Task: inverse folding
């Protein structure tokens, strides 16, 4: 897998605090091109848009999928029939581009384009359910 194009820009002033945001991500499989009987190239594009418009990130590249001739035939046939690509191809591309986009977001000093875990308040001591017995 190789990334051939990276475009990223921060629009928000560094002095201003970043407000609550929504992040829209879009991964497109541009095409599938058979290179040999056992190899398919899969060009892809990732676009990440922040709302409000604090930044944007765009990555373009190509993934290669190797397999047996029958597997590659099925992948190409499914693509020509407008069926979704195999999950393993999409997952592999997603893993790479999201990792790269996290590194880019760190460089731009913007929130990463993945949801961060929410840590809630711990339960208060003494608020136990009313006299329930769960013993056997």
Result:
């Amino acid at each position: 897998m190789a990334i051939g194009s990276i475009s990223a820009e921060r629009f928000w002033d560094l002095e201003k605090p970043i407000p609550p945001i929504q992040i829209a991500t879009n991964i497109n499989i541009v095409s599938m091109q058979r290179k040999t009987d056992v190899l398919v190239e899969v060009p892809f594009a990732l676009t990440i848009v922040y709302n409000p418009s604090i930044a944007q990130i765009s990555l373009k590249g190509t993934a290669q999928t190797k397999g047996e001739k029958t597997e590659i035939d099925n992948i190409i046939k499914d693509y020509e029939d407008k069926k979704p690509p195999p999950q393993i191809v999409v997952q592999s591309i997603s893993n790479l581009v999201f990792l790269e986009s996290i590194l880019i977001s760190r460089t731009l000093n913007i929130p990463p384009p993945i949801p961060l875990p929410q840590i809630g308040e711990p339960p208060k001591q003494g608020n136990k359910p009313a006299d329930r017995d769960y013993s056997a």
